[in-house]
């Protein structure tokens, strides 16, 4: 956030969600599921609907509890809140930070970034109920997922600078700036949202 503020303020409007799953992170043994055992990145609305997402989870993951989507999409408080934020803010792109796959993933329209810092593009697949599926496929909002190399060791300052520099360059080149009625083009900036 300091790097964005220092080098990229005024270019984009950002909404930052530092942590979407505090219950999972703050458990004695951290987990990707929330306090009710739901994987929030499988609980977003989906083109398959709730039953289709649940059935796909049952069929494809052999009912892996780490990826449980919940019985219905967007019923968890965290998921509801994120859906509402996206609906109200209307981002032109979403940046999601995960770990530890050490790649850049992309969902939605437009060209994917080929590299952000040392992270190279690799399509991981789009699963029903994920943020990438909801925003990228259902809403048509590009979603860049930074899969950092470690969930316990943050990138160095130099690597963070490289990631954000490449990301902002990609956003400037690929995200169209909309022109609201009555606002001169020179005063228009692009919106972005960073979510975890």
Largest sheet: 5 strands, mixed
Taking all residues together, what is the mean pLDDT? 86
* Radius of gyration (Å): 17 Å
Number of helices: 6
Low-pLDDT windows of residues = 179-191
Class per helix and strand makeup? alpha/beta
> What's the total number of strands?
7
Name the beta content range.
15-25%
Q: How do the SSEs run, as a string of H and E?
A: HEHHHEEEEHEHE
Shape: globular
Termini gap: 13 Å
Number of domains in the coordinates? 1
Order of adjacent strands in the largest pleated sheet: 1-7-2-6-3
Portion in helices? 25-40%
List keywords for this structure.
7 strands
Descriptive notes:
The chain is of the alpha/beta class and 196 residues long. It has one domain (2-20, 77-195). Helices cover 32% and strands 15% of the residues. It contains 6 helices and 7 strands; from the N terminus they run αβαααββββαβαβ. The strands form 2 sheets. Strands 1-7-2-6-3 form a 5-stranded mixed beta sheet. A two-stranded antiparallel sheet has the order 4-5. Strand 4 and strand 5 form a beta hairpin. 34% of the residues are buried.
Any chance you could write out the topology, listing elements then pairs?
Blueprint: H1 2-8, E1 12-16, H2 22-25, H3 49-60, H4 77-89, E2 94-98, E3 103-107, E4 115-116, E5 119-120, H5 131-139, E6 143-147, H6 157-174, E7 190-195
Summarize the structure.
By secondary structure, the chain is of the alpha/beta class. The chain is 32% helix and 15% strand. The chain has one domain (2-20, 77-195).
């Amino acid at each position: 956030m300091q790097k964005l503020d220092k080098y990229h303020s005024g270019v984009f409007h950002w909404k930052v969600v530092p942590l979407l799953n505090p219950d999972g992170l703050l458990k004695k043994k951290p987990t990707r599921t929330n306090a009710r055992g739901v994987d929030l990145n499988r609980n977003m609305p989906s083109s398959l609907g709730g039953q289709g997402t649940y059935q796909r989870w049952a069929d494809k993951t052999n009912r892996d509890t780490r990826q449980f989507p919940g019985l219905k999409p967007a019923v968890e408080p965290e998921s509801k809140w994120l859906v509402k934020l996206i609906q109200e803010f209307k981002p032109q792109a979403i940046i999601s930070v995960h770990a530890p796959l050490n790649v850049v993933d992309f969902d939605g329209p437009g060209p994917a970034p080929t590299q952000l810092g040392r992270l190279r593009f690799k399509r991981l697949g789009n699963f029903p109920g994920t943020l990438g599926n909801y925003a990228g496929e259902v809403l048509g909002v590009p979603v860049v997922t930074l899969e950092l190399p470690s969930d316990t060791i943050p990138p160095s300052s130099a690597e963070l600078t490289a990631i954000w520099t490449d990301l902002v360059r990609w956003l400037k080149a690929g995200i169209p700036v909309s022109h609201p009625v009555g606002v001169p083009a020179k005063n228009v900036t692009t919106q972005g949202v960073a979510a975890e």
